[in-house]
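Let's practice the habit of predicting before peeking. Look at the sequence and jot down your guess about where helices and strands might fall. Then scroll down.
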Amino acid sequence: MSASLGLYRLQQVDRQIDRTRSQLDTIRQTLENDAEMRECLKQVETAKAAHHRAHHELKSTEVEVEAQKIKIEQAESSLYGGRVQNPKELQDLQKDVASLKKHLSTLEERELEAMLAAETADKNLQNANTQLELIQARLGSEHKKLIADQSTFVMELENLVEEREATLAPIDSSLLQIYEDLRQQRRGIAVAEITDNACAACGGTLNSAIQQSARSQKLVNCPTCGRILYSN
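Done guessing? Here is the structure:
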């Protein structure tokens, strides 16, 4: 077997290995780092925080309203209980009751606004949780397929590694180093076929002497890109 043929076959295996590893990396990244899931979880956390604030505000306004009502009851009890007889004191109590009731109206308006905000927060949280459940269900199905594909690719990679070891056996170590260096320099393609009198990798035209040398199983490099030329 010629050196160029051996390196060409090695490159075919290496490219399959590269593709398989790339597919495994894509699956791993999808399983570990799903952008849609992260965004949905972020929305749920935001909705939870808003829900907590809204209900805390509602609870605060409810406490204030209840406290104001107690103040009004106490003031009215003093006003109508008969214990205060002085007209000036009675007039002052009437003013206090009126002021307390006016402030109660303001507090009740705030309470109503807080109730509406809490209802909105409830709906937003429910919607966020529902969306999360939908995404989890869909991704669960998708991830199940990805995990199955992952197992298939792992087995395929193991077989390819074994095939590579067998392909390496007849190749001289010095040629292998040249091949590896070219793979790094030329984006994974160290060996290029001759197609239509040109290098299939870079498109550089090849004269008849270079083509003849490649066909005679000599190790020839493309004068344009430096890749090893292979002619079948």
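How did you do? The CA atoms of residues 2 and 105 lie 97 Å apart.
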